[in-house]
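agent> call fold_tool(seq_1)
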Amino acid sequence: MAIYFIRHGQSEFNAAFQGEVDPFIFDAPLTSLGFDQAARARETIADLGVSRVITSPLTRAIQTAKTIFDGIAPIEVQHGHHELLKFSGDVGRAPDNLRVDFPDLSFDHLPTRWWHSHADPDIDVPVEPAESFESRIAGFVARLEEIQNEDVAIVGHGNAFQHIIGFMLNNCQIHRYR
């Protein structure tokens, strides 16, 4: 039994981001390079025996999971290991909107607003407090402990995985967590 972490491929936000200036690309999709990175990762995972995939609800993670695992293993969308909300690219979309782009996946179990929210609805990018992020990731790690007797791939995000394993994964890097 193994759990593998896979960071999403390059997103449009990643490609446009310069320092601390937010390019305001909300729920950024993959770039063509990101899709290429995911296609190369697909070649690598064949020998891992992954039987289940859990992806973050952010578009770039879903696109990465589908590129790597469609036809190989079932893909589940779960929140909890989504990115630390600091920039526009980390703002999610409601399940109804995601369902339009990914009709073959289930979003019924997601709350309407599964990403960090702020009391002021006029704030476009409500920065997630560190305590909230840390608590959310701790809950996700606790749920990972429930996974037994199967090889699972978790497709997610740099800051979330870094918080768990202590270093930043490259785009589409595969890391054996357990």
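agent> call fold_tool(seq_2)
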Amino acid sequence: MTDLPTGWEWARLDEVAEVRLGRQRSPKNHTGTQMRPYLRAANVGWNGLKLDDVKEMNFTDEEVEVYRLRPGDIVLSEASGSPGEVGKPALWNDEIEGCCFQNTLLRVRSWGPDPKYLLNLLRFEAMRGAFVEHSRGVGIHHIGAGRLSSWRIPLPSLAEQRRVVALLDGQLSGLESGLDALLLSGRRLRTLTKAILAEAIPLNLPGNWRCVSVGEAGAVDLGRQRHPDWHTGPHMRPYLRVANVFEGRIDVSDVMEMDFPPEVFEKFRLREGDILLNEGQSPEYLGRPAIYRGAPEEVAFTNSLLRFRAGPGVDPEWALLVFRRHMHTGRYIRELRITTNIAHLSAGRFKAVEFPVPPLDEQREIVARVNEQLAGVERLRKEIEDGERRIAALRKSLLAEAFSGRLVPQDPDDEPASELLARIRAERAVRIPKQRNRAPRRKKELPAPPTRVTGDDYQQETLPL
């Protein structure tokens, strides 16, 4: 977006809005006499605010004046471990009286533009990945108040902003309704998958079945730990990690490498028929399994995965079915431990999980029947994903049209954006007192105590397609 229609102007975000980082958390503020509700990144979703789990901390009256949210404020995720989540925005409509915000969020408070226009514009920037391109950090991506403040935005007249918002509200609500229907269908498919697996492998085992532990049914190993010293070396080999393992399939589009000396590689090398399970994940995806079928060749695995190698009398395809059943019925949740909001399934606990073993011929019969049923479910799932992609494309196209000036017609009688900007500057000049030539000397303050940002503050959410 470089060429703007007549009457539009480019502006820095901090020319038309206040951009502020939220209040830092500190253990001393976990209790106090002035406890107030506050929002964090986990409360911001792609389709609005999620207020079912709003926490509290102590805010003084002075701090409340700085960090309290007002109707029309926009809150954005300042950072995320998932690149697609950086800058995810939502509009505050005073849903909770006296609510403040924490430093995993940025607040944008308009000085003149329509807040809903800014909301849709910022959502478009986040969805197209513009914020993450300018983020910093390793592991956790930060956009920062400074970068967001200097963000260039296309600004039409206030009247045109409102016309854009009105049209977007109608068009996007229709897309949201379609997306909600697809998401509901997806949830029903997951329920159907669970029912198919639970029926195939019942709790009350037939008399000719045995029940052993996972450790008795095969060998269980944890993958090799990653280390910066092994990022380069003379024996670079590909390895699979949790990002490569999905239910029933291995994604090889992003396979990384590290240095494996020959004797170490042999220990962690995968063989066809090995089953990999996510050792660390969100609880509902803990133990998500896939079978290695030989691609990519000569590959190892890291300690974000567990490997199961079937023993005598156990068909690997049967083992995959058992592990999928355990995941869908929540069996692994009884074995998990939580660290920084990530659920872990240790090798020791996994080995102790029950493993039903019917006769080998019966294993193969059940696998063939269930795979046929699940293939039908998979076809429906792909159709739902295709629908979500079409909605994503329509949404992106609609927003691109809106912020290039092609969604609604320009009205020559509208006040141009240049006059809106001039009025904002004039009003700010009156409100903000002139600074002294020399800043007064301030008493040296001790640095704020470090705060630990945990997974509880951030919540990964799939970008709505």
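agent> summarizing second result for user.
The domain at 1-156+436-465 is CATH 3.90.220.20 (Adenine-n6-DNA-methyltransferase TaqI; Chain A, domain 2). The two ends are 22 Å apart (CA to CA).
agent> awaiting next instruction.
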